[in-house]
Amino acid sequence: MAIHCTLAHSGAWAGVAKVLGEHLTLTAYDLPGHGKSGDWTGEGDLHQVSTDMGRALLTQPMDLVGHSFGATVALRLAVENPAHVRSLTMIEPVFFAPALADEPERVQAHDDLVADYEQGLADGDMESAARGFNRVWGDGTKWADIPKSVRDYMIARIRIVPDGTPMLFDDNAKLLVPGALDRVTMPSLLIEGEASIDVVDAINGALARRLPDARRMVIEGAGHMAPITHPEAVGAAIHALLEVS
User: Fold this and answer.
1) DSSP string, 7-65
2) What is the value of pTM for the model shown?
3) What are φ and ψ of residue 28, in 5° steps?
4) Phi and psi angles of residue 205, each rounded to the nearest 5 degrees, phi first
5) Domains, the chain, ranges and CATH?
6) 198, 110 in Cβ contact below 8 A?
7) Please, what is the Cα angle at 111 between 48 and 92, to 5 degrees?
8) N or C end of the chain: which has fewer CB within 10 A?
9) pLDDT per position as a tens digit, 165-220
10) Any idea what the Cα angle at residue 80 is, between residues 191 and 71, rounded to 5°?
């Protein structure tokens, strides 16, 4: 089961699915407010709803793969349902809370990078917010060079991003309480792009120190959007993990 990043949709896994097609079947779902899922109204807890959607599909032992926000959902599913998770692959999980505990200065550096995004939200300028967010968490493509339909899609959904804060920064799911991450005993892989921003390394390092059976890898030449820009490398890494699961 694959869980996409914020401002994307389940189709983002098409390249990885093609690489892995000979080895497994891939199920992907659209997060709230994304793809073909219903609009996100802001009622309830975004991360809880996203996790509940995944849990409904976790009807048998499965290999979980998540990217960015989706990777944090995959981690939560593994903590809460370990008997149904054979392996866990997290591609640049944006779970800032453990990095805040270990290296808060590196998270502050990230906060400085997303100042334009924050200002756009404060001003109600969703295009500026989306542009600022994409500059930090996109694939490096200049805003003007992104197709208008894709820009419009991101602009319409950028308002959803802050609703992940209670989990991503404050750990309202309590994944960091003593013993919680000890339940993630299945083989786990933390992937990051060679060209990604520094906080990604801080997050993956913090998680690797806490997970019982975690390994890390860096994809050469990739940034945050590795599942889309480097599907062959991502697929190969997932397949290698499955061989030891």
Assistant:
1) T--GGGGHHHHHHHTTT----EEPPTTSTTSPPP-S-S-HHHHHHHHHHHH--S-EEEE
2) 0.97
3) -130, 145
4) -65, -45
5) 2-102+163-244 (3.40.50.1820)
6) yes
7) 55
8) C
9) 999 999 999 999 999 999 999 999 999 999 999 999 999 999 999 999 999 999 99
10) 25
